[in-house]
Amino acid sequence: MPTLTSPSTDVKTFQHLILQGIPDNLPALKPFDASLNHAPKRKEILNPAEKKLAIRNALRYFSEKHHEVLAKEFAEELKTYGRIYMYRFRPDYKIYARPVHDYPHQSLQAAAIMHMLSNNLDYAVAQHPHELITYGGNGAVFQNWAQYLLTMQYLASMTDEQTLVLYSGHPMGLFPSHKDAPRLVVTNGMMIPNYSKPDDWERFNALGVTQYGQMTAGSFMYIGPQGIVHGTTITVMNAARKIAPTEEGRKGKLFISCGLGGMSGAQPKAAKIAGLVAIVAEINPKATHTRHSQGWVDEVYDDLAVLIKRVRKAQANKEAVSIAYQGNVVDLWERIIAENMQVDIGSDQTSLHNPWAGGYYPVGISYEESNRMMAEYPEQFKKEVQKTLLRHANAVNTLAAKGMYFFDYGNAFLLEAGKAGADIFKADGSFKYPSYVQDILGPMCFDYGFGPFRWVCTSANAKDLETTDKLALEVMEAMYKEAPEEIKQQLSDNILWIKDAMHNNLVVGSQARILYADSEGRIKIAEAINKAIADGRISAPVVLGRDHHDVSGTDSPYRETSNIYDGSRFTADMAVHNFVGDGFRGATWISLHNGGGVGWGEVINGGFGMVLDGSADSDRRLKSMLFWDVNNGIARRSWARNKEAIFAIKREMQRTPQLKVTLPNLVDDTLLDSLKF
Ligand SMILES: NC(=O)c1ccc[n+]([C@@H]2O[C@H](COP(=O)([O-])OP(=O)(O)OC[C@H]3O[C@@H](n4cnc5c(N)ncnc54)[C@H](O)[C@@H]3O)[C@@H](O)[C@H]2O)c1
Questions:
Q1: Per-residue pLDDT at 9
Q2: How many other CB atoms are found less than 10 A from the CB of residue 316?
Q3: Are 560 and 159 in contact (CB under 8 A)?
């Protein structure tokens, strides 16, 4: 394996290019590569003066001698794609999570950050790699290639006495700090609250001054589809347990949903693991093909008559099978009703956090025509989307009246259907259907402190990952023996998961693993990994992190915090506290984002990355930071009177005498009901 001390020519060239940053001579213009998935053209939103400003902004990265060429080129990009990506500066080397020592560096922590951010841009991982989008249609790592080149150069040259600051992808620079400070502070899309509507994103992103970082895209924490397979399996399995507690009882039950994209593509695989018959609709043939060729969905049909026949047979035979419908989901739902079929579980995972720019496709209009319409006739497109949402919600209502258990999958389906005028509200103004967090993940996982803990072996060596799996299994098996009844199910689901993880070939991109653990589990696994790095059983640093779909860190009233009922779900204090608190407890990088999952202006989330290098410093940091990172959220959930969280925080206070959390006093309902207003 090439290392810094004996670099092969290839690695040497790569290192030279990283240290060079933005090249002084213009690289050759690159042809548009139609074989790749590209971001849809963004709608035209800037007026002529703003267009000039966008180009003036973009030219800030380049020496004046190139302005004449680049000004015209960027104007053309803005016209053609609605954004300035600076395609010419896309590097020729392959971007992927290289072994950490291949990155030129003065700080090993900074090299680990390069490993992580490179993974987010790997062609095998990213949704629109040339537009620097990792997932969700608009989840950006950077706004343009100049930002990438400059950031890599800063990371490669910085020391452990400096901190790099990123404003929505733009590297503001390196600032003197100290070795216990984060090496990197990232914010994405932080706006003055009144300027946080979807069109504000369109305008300010087109101007080049902000970006939508989603969650793990802009925080360099994406680990490919594995994270989502795990979360979706836990969700669908627990949804199935709600309608049929036994494995036998679940056989032949029908699950219907939509989306075979970045995250949604995990649904058929998860439903099959849960033993169900699953139909998942997908309008984009490329997405269907990808998931089918990866084996994530077993069979594909574009003819509804043939599909229905196949589904009836699968139900009769009690097969666990996943079936894709190549077409619009509303056509599927309406056909199911016309056939008088019973659906057991229903959901939806179109990208409704992004309804007007490719997240949701109207029925009765071809995929290509929709893509044209959203760019050229955005108002008409919006009307078509809303008409479709009404039909979609009506179909859900009809089937729910016949007994279907429907849950919102955190994609803003109910939010957007409601805005379109659909009949999805109860008399008190709340939604008729629960979100998957309200019914499933909130009470069963988050309130107990269980959430998506992940780690990445920066050696890029699968053997190291195998070692970490074994360590995690040992930790969880030991915990299971001592665990209270309330969390045994969580532990046993995750023990099973980690046992099968290696055989299930879940790695795409970096050598990463995810499981759900509480603060005790996260700390014990991290400690075990740190020790194994120290004594050489693991060959290079390991990065710890989480996605934001967790106990703590994310304030998202229609998703992560949708099961907070004291009115505080529309506040964002928790996310900010996680971000800041992780920063001074030893995180290697911290990130704060507006948007992610449910949409710009609808959520604030804070995340972290932590590099373990086997040192005593790492041991101190991991204990302090992971404890806070989880328990901040449990404290907040317990203050909201969630009974599982009150149980979890009391248990933690017994284990940790220094922890003192304010507990709520509960009021008798009859007392409140007797009050006259
Ligand atoms: N999986 C999870 O655990 C999870 C959790 C929370 C939220 N979400 C949300 O789920 C949504 C989907 O995420 P993603 O990464 O898969 O996005 P994506 O854009 O990659 O995939 C969505 C897919 O839906 C398809 N689609 C849109 N409208 C359709 C229609 N009318 N009929 C058929 N197909 C249609 C699109 O072609 C696309 O492939 C996002 O809003 C995300 O935030 C997912």
A1: 64
A2: 10
A3: no
Measured in Å, residue 670 CA sits from the centre of ligand 1 at 43
User: How is residue 78 annotated by DSSP?
Assistant: H
Distances (CA, A) of 544 to 99, 410, 497, 576, 613: 16, 25, 19, 20, 11
CA 121, 213, 586, 508 dihedral sign is: negative
* pLDDT block averages, 10 residues each, the chain of length 677: 51 97 96 91 95 98 98 98 97 97 98 98 94 92 98 98 98 98 98 95 97 95 88 92 91 97 90 93 95 92 98 97 98 98 97 92 97 94 98 98 95 95 95 92 95 97 98 98 94 92 86 97 98 98 95 93 95 98 98 89 96 98 98 98 97 97 97 96
Q: Cβ–Cβ contacts within 10 Å for residue 1, how many? A: 12
Q: CB–CB of 165/94 below 8 Å?
A: no
Q: Residue 488: what residue type?
A: K
Give me the residue label for tokens 């120290």: 534
Structure tokens at 346: 């229903």
- Given a contact cutoff of 8 angstroms between Cβ atoms, the answer to whether 112 and 104 are in contact is no
Hey, what are 294's tokens? 């990866």
Buried b (16+ CB within 10 A) or exposed e, 611-634: bbbbeeebbebbbbbbbbbbbbbb
Q: Beta 254-258 vs 589-594: how paired, if at all?
A: unpaired
User: Which of 364, 390, 413 is closest to 258 using CA atoms?
Assistant: 413
pTM: 0.88
**DSSP three-state, residue 318:** coil
User: Cα–Cα distance between 569 and 577 in angstroms, integer?
Assistant: 15
Task: Decide if 215 contacts 593 (C-beta within 8 A).
Answer: yes
Strand partners, 256: 279, 346
C-beta contacts of 576-581 below 8 A and 24+ residues apart: 576/604, 576/606, 577/606, 577/632, 578/552, 578/553, 578/606, 578/607, 578/608, 578/628, 578/629, 578/632, 578/633, 579/553, 579/606, 579/607, 579/608, 581/628, 581/629, 581/632
Distance CA 84, CA 74 (A): 6
Q: How far apart are CA 656 and CA 10, in angstroms?
A: 51
Choose which residue among 333, 349, 360 to substitute to test ligand 1 binding: the one with the highest number of ligand atoms within 8 A of its C-beta. 349
Question: How many C-beta neighbours within 10 Å does residue 34 have?
Answer: 6
Do the Cβ atoms of 114 and 105 come closer than 8 Å? Answer: yes
Q: How far is it, in rounded angstroms, from Cα 118 to Cα 148?
A: 10
User: Are the CB atoms for 632 and 528 separated by under 8 Å?
Assistant: no
Residue to mutate (ligand 1; options 283, 291, 347, 351; most atoms within 8 A of CB): 351
Cβ(253)–Cβ(277) below 8 Å: yes
Alpha helices in 21-83 (DSSP H): 48-59, 67-81
Per DSSP bridges, beta strands 162-167 and 170-176 are antiparallel
Q: How many CB atoms lie within 10 A of CB 555?
A: 27
Question: What's the pLDDT score for residue 391?
Answer: 98
Instruction: Give the contacts of 536 (CB within 8 A, at least 6 positions apart).
Output: none
CA 64 and chain centroid, separation: 39
Which residues, judged by CB distance below 6 Å to any ligand atom, belong to the binding site of ligand 1? 135-137, 228, 231-232, 258-264, 266, 281-284, 287, 328-329, 349-353, 359-361, 409-411, 549, 559, 597
Atom 39 of ligand 1, nearest CA residue: 261
Atom 26 of ligand 1: nearest residue by CA position: 350
Task: State whether the Cα torsion 644-645-648-653 is positive or negative.
Answer: negative
